Amino acid sequence: MTTSTLPVPDFTARIAERARRMNASAIREILKITQEPDVISFAGGLPAPELFPIEDVRRATDAVLTRYGAAALQYSTTEGHLPLRRWIAGRAGIEPQNVQIVTGSQQGLDLLGKVLIDEGDVVLVESPTYLGALQSFQPYGPRYVQLPTDDHGIDVGALEAVLKAQPAKLLYAIPNFQNPTGRTLSLERRRRLVELTAQYGVLVIEDDPYGKLRFTGEELPGLYDLALEMAGDPEHSHVIYCSSFSKTLVPGLRDAWLQAATPIIGKVVQAKQGADLHTPTLNQMIVTELVDDVMPRQIEIVKRAYGERARDMVAKIGEHLPAGIHHTTPEGGMFLWVTLPEGIDTQPMLARAVVRKVAYVPGTPFFALGGGANTMRLSYSSATPEQIDTGLKALGETIREVLT
Length: 404
Hints:
Strands 2-9-8-7-6-3-4-5 form an eight-stranded mixed sheet, sandwiched between helices. Strands 10-11-14-13 form a four-stranded antiparallel sheet. Strands 1-12 form a two-stranded parallel sheet. The chain is an alpha/beta fold. Helices cover about 45% and strands about 15% of the residues. Helix 4 (about 55-70) packs across helix 12.
């Protein structure tokens, strides 16, 4: 092959400004360095693969291909497989026209950012918040305002003060077993948040991938439910609901959905047509085959396993980590949050932890405006009791080394 004498294009200069704002996922980058089989990773929020209903998915695939034939392998409508949309709508008390199937919750967040956020729009986020949402919204140029949180979720008094001081376009929240902290927004605060955002004309994105994975305590109504009750009609609700089958069935099928008023759904449809035309037909049909029979059983299996692993991790934190460290105690989901003494930076500490064959996610990437250097996210969902014990012992040794 001969070398061209033509000048090499300045590719960097040709990258669009919105693309320059993109950042790599901190979690995905960490996963690259924890691929060695002897590294115990509490980093990735991965559903437990040994719990996947493989035989049920195989039977569902055979049933779908037998029933639908070539139609299961054909292009389909952008809005999604109608029987699946009807099933989702029926459980929510709405119509299929208010439901959009998306290829994973992450695509839903990206499409919502594309159709809702203009350059400079004020977007309210929890502090800390899901870094994948920040990654999705960032290219559209939002101006983030962080809302303080405690063990009961968003401080709604602070939210009210923010809304009185400045207009906001959008609020993004994970009320159930929040990623990254594992906290749950209390019922009183949910009601107040819905009231305040309605009063000040702020759209709310309720991200709820973990809501069905409650292993202790009582189930709470979602923000979408409360807004629908208040508005009386999905066409007047200011809350947009996002959820997924990734945590309740399997993540690899990449099936998720949005619930919203039809003007928003209509624009999401147009944005999705430009992104991928539609979510894979076969995958949607497989999920539809599983939702009534397999998924309820699967949810119970997953809740029981995650509950045991969360309790084990909480106990081992008390046993292996130094005194004076704060952690959340989740009622469901896949994560808990650890706060170390001031002065410790968990990002450079990660390299020391990996030497001891344990990994976590440093907290800073979960803060829209920076901060949280002394925090970390731990996931218990795919860890065995032995890994939890060994990994937290190694993490405790790492923290003590940094403290000395």
